[in-house]
Amino acid sequence: MKNTPTTPDAADRPVRWVERFPVARDRPILGGVATVAIVAAAWALRIVADPLLPPGFPYVTFFPAVIVTSFVFGVRLGAVSAIICGLLAWFFFIPPIHAFIITQQAGIALAFYVFVVATDLSLVHWMQTANRQLARERETNRALADTRELLFRELQHRVSNNLQVAAALLSMQKRQLADPGAKAALNEASARLALIGRISRQLYDPSGAAQPVVPFLAELCRDVVEASGRSDIALDVAGDVDLRLQPDAAVPTALIVAEAVANAVEHGFAAERAGRIEIMVGRGPDGSLTILVQDDGHGLPADFRADNTTSLGLQIATTLARGQSGSFRLHSDTGTTATLSLPAHLLATED
């Protein structure tokens, strides 16, 4: 069974740096000490800069202190910082200095300060609230995605198991038959159901992403050769590793290639004869997907005609190829070559 990707736990997921604020929410003493330190630094900086500043800038260093405190430690400590900074600016830098006297000039300056810090605190509070809401929604979406993947995995597993059970039932049923032809038909049907079950496992992808053709076919064809019980047949799958197949086209394409490989194993090599099967994946001159299945076996009979074949496997492959607006052909040279051509629109477009 193909391993399925696991989803990282919430604790392992990276947290956006902005989601860490406000910090020290569970340690108010640390936040209070840090707030006092920021206010003291703003006050000291304002005193140092006072000789360099023209009159009328009492809050020039206090506004940043309020914003930083509210952003880092939360709006409550930001409001405490705003009150302390306002009192310090009023007492030390708004005439008459060193006295809490409300004059017309002081009243205007204080009103301006209150308006600005109230706006700053409101914006920071709104931003942090929205950010927390986004973080909760993102976690909810992650949980839904995990649930979807789990359900998809379970559905895929059950479908595959049901196909395997159906294949086993057909295999049991053939034992009750005496007619060799009926036994062979049930045996082929059982093998194909089991193959579809394996394909469904390999196609597992809850996102519905396009399948990479070469590794997908390599794993599938190895399963087909192993299921035949032949260990003396070498298999090589090569080609353009960047080609990806649309999800809707993956199952019929896999069935066609599997039929070609199974046909090569069954008819191309006698039980005592070793051999090699090569699969090449690439683009045709018109951009179509071309898959060649070549073997060095006995080759086709001299009187072989594809349109008159009684092989159910070849009929299935031909029908599936036509159903995708493609073609499936067989010809002999040294061995047999099966050529599957599919239109370019079945390939995933590059981002």
From TrEMBL:
* Compartments, as annotated in UniProt: Membrane
One MF term in the entry's GO annotations: protein histidine kinase activity
Q: What is its EC number?
A: 2.7.13.3
Keyword Kinase among UniProt keywords: yes
Reaction catalysed by this chain?
A: ATP + protein L-histidine = ADP + protein N-phospho-L-histidine
PROSITE patterns recorded:
HIS_KIN (PS50109)
Question: Which SMART domains does the entry mention?
Answer: HATPase_c (SM00387)
Does the keyword section mention Phosphoprotein?
yes
A Pfam family the protein falls into: HATPase_c
Mode of membrane association: Multi-pass membrane protein
What are the boundaries of the signal sequence? none
Question: Sorted alphabetically, which keywords does the UniProt record give?
Answer: ATP-binding, Kinase, Membrane, Nucleotide-binding, Phosphoprotein, Transferase, Transmembrane, Transmembrane helix, Two-component regulatory system
Histidine kinase domain boundaries:
256-346
Q: What Gene Ontology terms for biological process does this UniProt record contain? A: phosphorelay signal transduction system
> What parts of the sequence cross the membrane?
29-49, 61-94, 106-127
Q: Which GO terms describe its cellular component?
A: membrane
The protein's name in its UniProt record: histidine kinase
Species: Sphingomonas prati
